[in-house]
Design a protein that fits this description.
109 residues; alpha+beta; 3-stranded antiparallel sheet; two-stranded parallel ribbon; 30% helix
C-alpha cells in the first residue's frame, strides 16, 4: 500500500504539493477549512520560475492551453492609466512564454 499524506490547505502550495506527492506514488487527501476559494481580482499570472515548476509538475502544457502569454507587465494607477511597462525576461527554454496569465473564471475550474 502506498503511503498516505494529509495536505492542509487547497491553495497553490497545497495543490502543487499534492501533484508532486502523487507523482511520487503517495496517496493524498486535501482538506480546506476556508469557504471555496475564489481569486481576488481578475486572475493570476505566473512568471518564469513558477512556470518552470509547472513543467516539473507535468501541468505546464495544460496551463498554456488555457492561459495567455505576456511579454510585458503594465503598471497601472487605480484608474487604469499605465504609468510604466516592464518587459519580462525569459529564463526558461527559448520557446517558453516569459509569463502567462489566466482569467479568474479559468482559475476556478
Amino acid at each position: 500500500m502506498a503511503g498516505r499524506v494529509l495536505i492542509v490547505g487547497s491553495g497553490p502550495a497545497g495543490l502543487a504539493s499534492a501533484i508532486a506527492l502523487t507523482h511520487a506514488g503517495l496517496q493524498c487527501e486535501i482538506v480546506e477549512v476556508s469557504p471555496p476559494s475564489r481569486p481576488a481580482g481578475i486572475g493570476i499570472a505566473l512568471q518564469s520560475a513558477p512556470l518552470r515548476a509547472a513543467k516539473r509538475l507535468g501541468i505546464f502544457k495544460q496551463l498554456l492551453e488555457v492561459g495567455r502569454p505576456h511579454h510585458v507587465i503594465d503598471m497601472c494607477r487605480p484608474d487604469g492609466t499605465i504609468v510604466a511597462t516592464v518587459p519580462q525576461l525569459n529564463v526558461n527554454e527559448p520557446d517558453d512564454p516569459r509569463s502567462s496569465g489566466w482569467r479568474a473564471r479559468v482559475c476556478t475550474r
